Structures are given as C-alpha cells and as structure tokens.
Amino acid sequence: MRKLYVIGIGAGDPDQVTVQAVKAMRQVETFFVIGKGEAKRELVDVRTAILAEHMDRPYRIVPIADPPRDRTPADYLDVVDDWHDRRSAVLESAFAAADGVGGILVWGDPALYDSTLRMIERVLARGVVSFDYEVVPGITSAQALAARHRIVLHGIGEPVRITTGRRLREEGLGAENALVMLDGDCSFTAIPDADVHIWWGAYLGMPDETLIEGPLAEVGEQIVRRRAELRDRKGWIMDIYLLRRGR
C-alpha cells in the first residue's frame, strides 16, 4: 500500500459525508473495515451503504476483526495501550497485504475520541510497512447533537468541556457546559441536578435516532430507562449528551 486515507464519515447519516470525503473515497482501491462483532453489525452496514451511495469506481472491502478489550480494567490506560498495540498489529498485516491506495472510514471525526490515527502511527513506527497517509475531517456527534437539538454548545463567551463518562464521574461537572461522550454508565446520575439542564441523543443520524432534553432532575431517569430499552433491543448503543449549569 502506498497511501492511506483516514476519512471521517459523520455520525451515521450518509448525507453528512462531505464533498472532500467523497473525493478522497473515490481515490481508494481497498477499504479496511474494523468490525465489532455481530451485535454491532449495523455500524459496518452504514459504512457499506455510504460506499454504495458515493463510490463511482470498483473497490474492495477488507474486514478486520477487532481484538477483544477488557471493559473493567484495573489500570485503564495500560489496558487501552495494550488494546491499541493488538489493533495495530492486525492493521499492519492487512496493510502489508494490500496494493495501491487504502482507506479507513472513521465514525465521526478521526481527531475526537478515536484511536485510528494513534494506531497508524504505531504501525509506521514498527517499520514493517511504509506509506503516506492523509486525514479528512468529518462531522462529529457533538455537532450532530447540537444541530438536532437546535442549540449552541456554550453560552456567550463561555467554554465547553469535552469529556468522557469516566472523567465526569471522577471530576464532576466542573464547567458551565460539559459535552460527555463514551459514557456507558449514565454518569449524569452522579451529578447534583439542581439547576442543570441536559440535551441527550442516541444513534444520531441513524434511523433509530432518539432525543431527550430538559432539566436533569425531570428527565434524568427517563433517559436511563430509554437508554436501557434501546440497548436491550439493538444490542448496542452510541449516545452523547450536553450538560449545562444555570441554563
């Protein structure tokens, strides 16, 4: 493989794919798709649908099984580092077997809570394969959440903190506006809810998109129940929310 495109494809809606992303996709001969098991097959199907809609040349898809990861680690950073190493080794093998131009379609944007770029750097650092790569930005779930709720992510002149559910549990709200991703435990339930507003969205840009908004004290338990129902029905969930103090 002589070149790799790392392409952000948005939060799930094929119409969120940018013109720049389409131009990059049409340079690609081989797409590498990391699967996350049958329960999350829909994530692969969305990528396949995007390619079917936008590609104007022959291409092939190389599926890659995602190595398992411990979701209850004693040392979070060490476990993630090990997982990234194993992912990089799998990608290295796939890259070495490919010719021409490759591509990876990244959910949302490659620069926000995604490990693809870190893994590519690890692959190149090993020195077994060598290639150039280009990054194409995509629409994030943060942007999609704001658009669907028709809000600005921060008040006038205010910052917005982008964090994870784990950090929210450890550190608290800590800002007027906190955008929370990667939260499998509904960590907003640990936040004192006086004068806090929440905008929540799941499966943004997909047919099962679900939105709930309101004072945390009034809608927090509704979100917990609805999230559990959706996860039980589909077998997986991707969601994001904004917390704002003193709306």
Short description:
This protein has 247 residues and is α/β, with parallel strands linked by helices. Helices cover 36% and strands 23% of the residues.
Account of the 3D structure:
By secondary structure, the chain is an alpha/beta fold. 36% of the residues lie in helices and 23% in strands. The chain contains 7 helices and 10 strands. A 5-stranded parallel β-sheet has the order 3-2-4-1-5, sandwiched between helices. Helix 3 (76-96) packs across helix 4. It is globular. The mean pLDDT is 91.
Radius of gyration: 19 Å
Overall mean pLDDT score?
Answer: 91
Largest sheet: 5 strands, parallel
Let me know the number of strands: 10
Report strand %.
15-25%
**Quaternary:** single chain
Helix content: 25-40%
Question: Helix and strand string, N-terminal first?
Answer: EHEHEHEHEHEHEEEHE
Which regions have little confidence, pLDDT < 50, spanning 5+ residues? Answer: none
Strand order of the largest sheet: 3-2-4-1-5
Distance from N terminus to C terminus (CA atoms, Å) equals 51 Å
Number of helices, where a helix is a run of at least 4 consecutive DSSP H or I residues? 7
Q: Determine the structural class based on helices, strands and strand pairing.
A: alpha/beta
Q: What's the overall geometry?
A: globular
